[in-house]
Structure formats: C-alpha cells, structure tokens
Amino acid sequence: MINLSDLRGSSYIVLGLARSGLATVRALVAAGVDCAAWDDSAETRKAAADAGILLADPERIDWPKITALVISPGIPSHLPKPHAIAAAARAAGRPIICDIDLLAKAEPKARFVAITGTNGKSTTTALIGHILHSAGWPVQVGGNIGRGALDLDPLGLGGVYVLEMSSYQLELVQDFHANVAVWLNITPDHLDRHGDMAGYVAAKQHIFDRQVTRDCAIIGIDDKYSVDVYRMLAKRRLAEDIAVVPLALKRVIAGGVNFEAGRLVDGEGYTVAFADVPTLPGDHNAQDAAAAWAAVRWLGVARERAVAGLRSYPGLPHRQEQVAAVDEVVFVNDSKATNADAAARALSSYNDIYWVLGGQAKEGGIAPLTPYFKRVRHAFLIGEAADLFAGQLEGKVAYTRCGDLKSAVAAANDKAQAEAKGPAVVLLSPASASWDQWKSYEHRGDAFREMARALPGAKMLGRPS
To answer: Helix or strand or coil: residue 344?
Structure first.
C-alpha cells in the first residue's frame, strides 16, 4: 500500500467504492488522513460501513473544508451528465482528481511510465512491467489494469511505476506527469463520455501534460488522429528537448521503431525477432512490443535483457489467451475484445476461425470487420447482438444462433472437429460488451476457459484458472 502520510491535515471525499476507490480509502485511512466516501449502491455502502469506512452524506458535505474529490474513473464528472457530487465539488471550486495524482504526490522520487490508446494498453503495460521485472528492476504495474494505484507497493528512488491509463483517468489528472508517455493508437470509443471524437482525443492527450526535458513520448502513427498528435508533439518537443519516438507498421520512420508480426527494427537498426512467441501474435501485438521496446530502452534496460524479457512474456488473461486444445483445434479466449476494432486484432492473427461472438453490441456492430470475414469458417452468435450480427454476416459468413456461450463452445468444437483439415481456432472475440449475460468481460472469459477445458479430449494450455 502507498504511504499517504504526507497528506495529513488534508481532507478528501472519495466517490465510488469499486477497486480504485476502496484502495484510495484504505490508503488514506491507514495514513491518518481525513476522508469520507460515497457510492450510489446501497449494498456497497452497507459493506463499506460494515468495514468501518466513514460514509459521506452528499447533502451535507462542507466543501470549503475539503481538499479534493477523488472520483473513480467510471463515474462521469462532465459528460454525459456529471454525478451530483462531482457537480457540487466543481461548483465549490474543489479539485476533482483520481488516485493517480495521489500516487504521484506520494512517490516523487520514482519514475512513471504511462500507457494509453484505444486498444493494446493492457498488453503493453504488462509487457513493459514484465521486461523491467525480468531485468531485475524494482517495478510495480497497475492503474487501469490489475491493482489500484494506491494498492501498489512503495518504491522510492530507482523504482518505476508502469500504469495503464484510460481516457477517464487522463481527463482527471492534474499533477501527475509521465517520464515515459506511450500512446498506441486511437479509434472511436467512449464518445458518450467525451462528447465526440475531438473530446476523446483531447482527453487522451493529457498523457503528455507536464512532461519536461529528458522525458520521452512514444506514439503509434498508423491512424489519422495519432498522426495529428504526433505532428503537434514533434513541433512542441523540438523546443523543449523531450524525446518523441514514433512507431509505424511495416515502414521505416526516422528515429522511430518499425514493426510487423513477430519482428521489429529499432531506431539504431537493431532487429528483434519474436515470431515464435505465442503470446504476441499479429501486427497489433507487434505494435505493443515496439512500444514496450522503446520504453524500456529509453529507461536504460540493456538490449539483451529487453530481448529476453520480450521473448519470455507469458501473456494476459482474456487477450488472445490460448486456453485449451482438442486435437489440432486451439481455443483462444479474447473476451477483452469488447468492440470491433479490438476483435479485428484477433481475426487478423489467425486463419480457419470458428468465431464465437455477441453480447451488447457497440455502435456499428461488426460491419468494420468485413475484410476479415474470409478468415472465418463459421460464426456462432450469442447474446443481445445475435440479430444485428446475423444481419451483418448474412451472405458473407455462415452462422449459427446459439444464444448462450456454453452452446456456442460446444457447437464450435463439433463443427471444427468435423470440418477442419488441419490447425484451426475456436476464437471467443465477442466484439461486444458482456453485460447482457455476464458480470464483466473477465467473467465471460473465465467461463469460456473452463468450458473449453471441459470438452472431451481437451488439453489445457496456458496458466491454470
């Protein structure tokens, strides 16, 4: 747990008692800092009160005495409508921050690597953390992945915090600055929270705020929005002596890193091959690897250590996680693919795909995935999106309406075993949110993993459940 004792004498309201909010309250209380909390769920409030957490009365908060409101990133502070407590804090002139700012205040001697992007954040974050850890560096990984920021361990001088940061977090930070800021890519997402694409891009750009001389900005330049941000950075950083490292697919960029599936070439002309690393398939994972390479090399990790860490990366659950095999059919859990762009990354990585998809559809459904349909042998539809997806697949890909995940897994296995003439993949890449049938994408992915491993003749792949 992060030591927040330097904040004694301050007073905080914590809004939202999920993972990050609970970690914030625990850290503040442990440090003897005055705080009270609120959550809109009566059940969550009761559990918090039973655990000894002081609850705030939203109608009676004495805002002039409050240092700041610490808000969980999932709770809107602006759009589409600000939470009433956030609106009250803003009206009173109180700062609205997230836990990342408190971590930065508590660990001023550590270095921070921050990663954002519409897709690939979690893999890149975990990969950077893995390379640093395998090279013997003191490192903690968290933020929007894994442990909450204030649940991490204190590191001090020489330590590195590697933080996945969503647009929700980035629009809140006021003091945090990243020594290494990584921007992977951007495609439309979360537009309800940011108003439009311009608002989404603007929120993401906060990752570069407050960078100073000898800091580093790493940015993928394979989409039009990122190219515009790169041009802005290149102009600004030239005067400020902040390194800007571009990442590009299959083309050489001066001073940058070019990448393609299983291979990258850095700005010094050094080639890294990792085509036999099963946890990093496809061009999208090559971008993640290129970003991680640029980050750890800028921090000072020796080249041979960086290569070793890259090649030993174990992968993340629910991100193209190979979980089981029945004969030559491999089952891949990509439950984290909750939109079409994320699903495209998986579809582009395999041939002979038996595709399990569906849930709560995002805007546009799977229409953007049409170029990948030729890789799909059959689709198995589940959840609320079944009718929409059936219409978008009609005449292009054969499909079966399965309704639920268990039926889809069984049907996909039966068809793959009957038809496949060699290696094939049963791919759960839903291109949809999970909330129609599951608590979360993790819940959905865990269920898929267990279902695949329970099939007759299944051999377990990857880590145990």
So the answer is: helix
**Rounded CA separation 282/286 (Å):** 6
Give the pTM. Answer: 0.85
* Beta pairing class for 263-265 and 271-273: antiparallel
Tokens representing residue 380 in the block? 């198995």
Any idea what the Cα angle at residue 50 is, between residues 44 and 55, rounded to 5°? 65
pLDDT value at 14 more than 90? yes
Backbone φ, ψ for residue 297 (5° rounding):
-70, -40
Per-residue model confidence as pLDDT tens digits over 346-358: 999 899 999 999 9
Nearest to 216 by CA among 179, 183, 248: 179
Q: Domains in the chain and their CATH numbers?
A: 5-97 (3.40.50.720), 100-311 (3.40.1190.10), 321-460 (3.90.190.20)
Please provide the DSSP assignment of 307-334 as one string.
HHHHHT----TTSSEEEEEETTEEEEE-
3-state SS, residue 273: strand
Question: In 10 A of CB 5, how many CB atoms?
Answer: 11
Residue written as token pair 């590697």: 162
